[in-house]
Amino acid sequence: MKGDSGSGGQRLAGLVLVVASGVAGVVLAWLVVLPRFVRRHRDMLLGRGLFRQLVDKYNDTTRSTSGTERSSSGLLTHVGRCSGRVYHTPLGAHAYHDGFLLPLGYGTNTDWYRNLMAAGSGELAWKGRTFRLERPEVVSGADATYVWPTRDRVLLWLAGMHEFVWLHACDDQPVRSLRSESSIEEFGDDMVPHRDSASRGALAERSAG
């Protein structure tokens, strides 16, 4: 009987290990492999109805929480450069010097980036507040990368995201408050729960021209 009990416990432990490994594999693929694949085949994928429906569903789901006080992700408001429509895109965001950094996951062909460059400005909801931002520019390197919390830096590196859009706060924005809130994100991870904000927006891409 004891042998059967021990064997049953080993089988259960093995099953738990297999399930945990499977879940970890799915999470790794979602956060690392998928962004790389989508970046490489972005135009082809966006031309397929099923993929566009998945993207729209993802955006709708994350849009409701992004930019809120308890979320570390931001909600970017930008105007279509051709259509003139207003779009809201959930993205990872982090305070940086006089503004914010947004990961440029798909390069400079990303619609929200092209819209920002055309308009020269946009709005970002972050931590329950809305900031008017301007003068978008692409930055990279250690200074821009190391502003992110360690967990997000690892995900950025694994996903191959090395470029960021630096949006500067308008002259009347409270820059000092941006820096103080950024320090909470960097040094108080247990105080402000967040969910891999750097990788948020890996699928937050839609036709927004």
TrEMBL record:
| Gene3D superfamilies per the UniProt record, alphabetical | Electron Transport, Fmn-binding Protein, Chain A
Q: Where is this region: Disordered?
A: 187-209
Q: Does the keyword rRNA processing apply?
A: no
What Pfam families does the annotation carry?
F420H2_quin_red
Q: Which domain of life is it from?
A: Bacteria
Sorted UniProt keywords: Membrane, Transmembrane, Transmembrane helix
User: Is Membrane there in the keyword field?
Assistant: yes
Transmembrane region(s):
12-34
| Protein name (database record) | Nitroreductase/quinone reductase family protein
Protein's organism = Nocardia jiangxiensis
